[in-house]
C-alpha cells in the first residue's frame, strides 16, 4: 500500500485490530469445542454423565456466535468509515486538481475511480485483508492444538496444505495483472459514457447512436475478457484448495483410524482431530481465497493512488489585501504561455484595465482571448511575465484571494443542476432573495422568473437544459454581478441574446462601470462600440489599443474584424424575383 493510502487507513487501524481480536476470541471458543467434544465422547465411552460437558459445549457455541457477531459488526463499521474517508478525500482532491491535469484526463475515468474503485479497495482492505490475517492466525492456532493431540498427524496435514499453498500462491499473483486491466477498462468505459451522455443532443442529431454504442460495446467486451481472465484464475484456485483441504481431512480420518486401532490414539482424540481438520478447512480456504482477492485490489489501489498523487491547487490566504486606489484593476505585463511546451499561445501579452472601465478584447479565433481570461483567473500559470490585480502580483495574493475579486462568465455559460436560487448563490451562499431579484433585474430576467410558478425555486435541469441559451447566459452574468467583484470577465456575453436583451445587457454593462471594471471578449458591434477602450489581439500579443473611432481609422486588423458589422455588404448572389 502506498503512503497516501496508508495515511487514509491509519485512523481505522485500532478499530480493525479490535475486530481482529474479537474474531480471535470467538475462534478461541471454537477451538475449545473439539476438546470438550473429545472429553464428552470419552465420558460416554466410559458410561459417565454428559450433562456437564454438554452444558459447557453449548455455552461455547453461544459465546462464539455472540463474540463473532460483535467482531463482524466492528469490521463492517471500520470498512464503512474507511470508505467514507477515502471517498471524501478523493472528492476533495479531484475538485482541487490543477486544471492542466483535466486537459489530459477524462472526467468519466475520474468518476469511476471515485466510485467503483473505492468500493473495491474497501472490500479488499477491510474485509479481505483482515479476514486473511485472521484466517492465518486461526490456522496456526488450530495446527498448534492438533500438534498437542498428535504431532504426527499435524505434520502430515500441514505438509499437504503447505505444498498446495505454494502452488496456489503462484497462481494468485497473475490475478493482479488481470485486475488492473479490468479496472482500467471499466474506467475508460465510464469516460466514454460520460462523453456521450454529456453531448446526447449532438449524438442524436448526427445519428451517431449506433456508432457510439458499438464503441462502448467494444470496451465492454474488453472488460468482459479481463473479467473472464480473472474469473478463470479464481475458479482454478477454488477446486485446487478444496482438493488439498479434503485430502487433509481424509488423511486424518484414515491415518487416525489406524492409530486408534493400534492404541496410539483414543477415540475421543480422533474425533477432536477430525473436528480440527474440519475447522482448518475454512480458515485455509479463506486465506487462499483472500490472497487471490488481495491481488485483485492491486488495480483499484493503483488507480486511486494515481489520483491522490496528482498536483492540486494551493488556495493561499482567502483574504485579499486592501486594493490600491491609484493602480489599475488589472495589469498584464509581457506574459508568455502555451498549453503545450514550446508552443506559445501568448507571446508577450501586455494589457491594462483601468479602474471603473469597460475594456473590449477583440481578435480572430485563436488569438489568445480566452487564454488571457484563464490566466487572469489563475486557472493556469504563465510561463513568464506578471499579472497584477489592484496593484498586487496575483502570485503573491494566493488563488482564493485572486478569485474572490474576479467574476468570470465563460463562453459556454455553465448552469449547474439545481434551482435558479442555487445557481445565483453559487459564489455567495448567504445572499438574500432581494439581492437575487436585484441582479436578475439588471440582466432583464426579473419579470421572466417572477412569472414562473416556482420562481427562484425553479429547477434548471442538467446543465441548465430547461433554460434557453440566452437565459443561461444571463443567469451566469447575474451570478457574477452578485459577488460584487472588482473585475468581471465576460466572454462574448451577448452571443446568445436577441436584439432586445442585447441592448438591455449593453446598458447594464455601461452602468456596472460605476461599480467595477469589465474586461469583455467582444464580437458584437454593440459591445465593441460601448467600450471605453479596445485591445486588438493578434497571434498572442496586443497589437493596438484605443477607442472604436481611433482603431477604425488607424488599425487594419481592427477594421478587418469589425468591417462586416461596421458597413453593410451586398449579398454574394443578387436576389432574384420569382416570375
Automatic annotation (TrEMBL):
Residues 330-564 form the ABC transporter domain. One of its GO terms (cellular component) is plasma membrane. GO terms for molecular function: ABC-type oligopeptide transporter activity; ATP binding; ATP hydrolysis activity. CDD domains: ABC_6TM_LmrA_like (cd18551). The chain crosses the membrane at residues 54-75, 129-149, 155-173, 233-257, 269-295. Keywords: ATP-binding, Cell membrane, Membrane, Nucleotide-binding, Transmembrane, Transmembrane helix, Transport. This is ABC-type transporter, ATPase subunit. It comes from Saccharothrix espanaensis (strain ATCC 51144 / DSM 44229 / JCM 9112 / NBRC 15066 / NRRL 15764).
Amino acid at each position: 500500500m502506498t503512503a497516501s493510502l496508508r495515511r487514509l487507513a491509519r485512523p481505522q487501524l485500532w478499530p480493525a485490530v479490535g475486530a481482529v481480536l474479537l474474531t480471535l476470541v470467538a475462534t478461541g471458543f471454537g477451538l475449545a469445542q473439539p476438546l470438550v467434544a473429545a472429553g464428552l465422547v470419552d465420558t460416554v465411552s466410559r458410561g459417565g454423565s454428559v450433562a456437564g460437558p454438554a452444558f459447557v459445549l453449548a455455552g461455547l457455541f453461544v459465546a462464539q456466535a455472540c463474540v463473532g457477531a460483535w467482531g463482524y459488526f466492528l469490521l463492517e463499521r471500520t470498512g464503512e468509515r474507511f470508505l467514507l474517508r477515502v471517498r471524501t478525500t478523493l472528492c476533495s482532491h479531484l475538485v482541487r486538481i490543477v486544471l492542466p491535469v483535466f486537459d489530459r484526463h477524462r472526467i468519466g475515468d475520474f468518476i469511476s475511480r471515485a466510485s467503483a474503485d473505492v468500493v473495491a479497495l474497501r472490500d479488499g482492505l477491510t474485509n479481505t485483508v483482515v479476514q486473511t490475517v485472521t484466517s492465518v492466525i486461526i490456522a496456526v492456532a488450530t495446527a498448534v492444538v492438533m500438534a498437542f493431540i498428535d504431532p504426527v498427524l499435524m505434520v502430515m496435514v500441514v505438509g499437504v496444505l503447505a505444498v498446495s499453498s505454494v502452488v496456489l500462491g503462484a497462481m494468485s499473483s497473475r490475478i493482479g495483472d488481470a485486475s488492473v486491466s479490468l479496472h482500467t477498462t471499466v474506467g475508460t468505459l465510464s469516460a466514454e459514457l460520460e462523453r456521450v451522455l454529456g453531448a446526447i443532443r449532438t449524438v442524436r442529431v448526427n445519428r451517431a447512436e449506433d456508432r457510439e454504442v458499438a464503441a462502448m460495446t467494444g470496451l465492454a467486451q474488453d472488460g468482459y475478457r479481463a473479467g473472464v481472465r480473472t474469473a478463470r484464475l479464481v475458479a482454478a484456485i477454488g477446486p485446487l484448495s478444496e482438493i488439498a483441504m479434503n485430502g487433509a481431512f481424509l488423511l486424518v480420518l484414515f491415518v487416525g483410524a489406524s492409530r486408534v486401532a493400534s492404541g496410539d490414539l483414543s477415540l475421543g482424540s480422533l474425533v477432536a482431530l477430525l473436528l480440527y481438520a474440519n475447522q482448518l478447512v475454512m480458515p485455509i480456504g479463506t486465506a487462499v481465497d483472500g490472497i487471490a482477492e488481495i491481488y485483485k485490489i492491486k488495480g483499484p489501489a493503483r488507480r486511486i493512488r494515481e489520483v491522490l498523487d496528482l498536483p492540486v491547487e494551493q488556495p493561499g490566504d482567502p483574504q485579499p489585501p486592501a486594493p490600491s486606489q491609484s493602480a489599475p484593476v488589472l495589469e498584464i505585463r509581457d506574459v508568455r504561455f502555451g498549453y503545450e511546451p514550446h508552443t506559445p499561445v501568448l507571446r508577450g501579452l501586455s494589457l491594462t484595465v483601468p479602474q471603473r472601465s469597460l475594456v473590449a478584447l477583440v481578435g480572430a479565433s485563436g488569438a489568445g482571448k480566452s487564454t488571457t481570461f484563464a490566466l487572469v483567473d489563475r486557472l493556469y500559470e504563465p510561463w513568464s511575465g506578471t499579472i497584477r490585480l489592484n496593484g498586487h502580483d496575483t502570485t503573491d495574493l494566493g488563488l482564493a484571494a485572486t478569485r474572490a475579486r474576479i467574476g468570470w462568465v465563460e463562453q459556454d455559460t455553465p448552469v449547474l443542476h439545481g434551482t435558479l436560487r442555487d445557481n445565483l448563490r453559487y459564489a455567495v451562499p448567504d445572499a438574500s432573495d432581494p439581492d437575487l431579484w436585484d441582479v436578475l433585474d439588471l440582466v432583464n430576467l426579473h419579470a421572466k422568473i417572477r412569472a414562473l410558478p416556482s420562481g427562484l425555486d425553479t429547477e434548471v435541469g442538467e446543465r441548465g437544459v430547461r433554460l434557453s441559451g440566452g437565459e443561461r447566459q444571463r443567469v451566469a452574468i447575474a451570478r457574477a454581478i452578485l459577488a460584487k467583484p472588482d473585475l468581471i470577465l465576460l466572454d462574448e456575453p451577448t452571443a446568445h441574446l436577441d436584439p432586445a436583451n442585447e441592448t438591455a445587457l449593453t446598458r447594464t454593462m455601461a452602468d456596472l462601470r460605476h461599480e467595477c471594471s469589465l474586461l469583455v471578449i467582444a464580437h458584437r458591434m454593440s459591445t465593441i462600440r460601448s467600450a471605453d477602450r479596445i485591445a486588438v489581439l493578434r497571434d498572442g500579443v496586443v497589437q493596438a489599443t484605443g477607442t472604436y473611432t481611433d482603431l477604425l481609422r488607424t488599425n487594419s486588423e481592427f477594421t478587418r474584424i469589425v468591417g462586416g458589422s461596421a458597413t453593410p455588404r451586398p449579398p454574394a448572389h443578387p436576389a432574384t424575383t420569382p416570375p
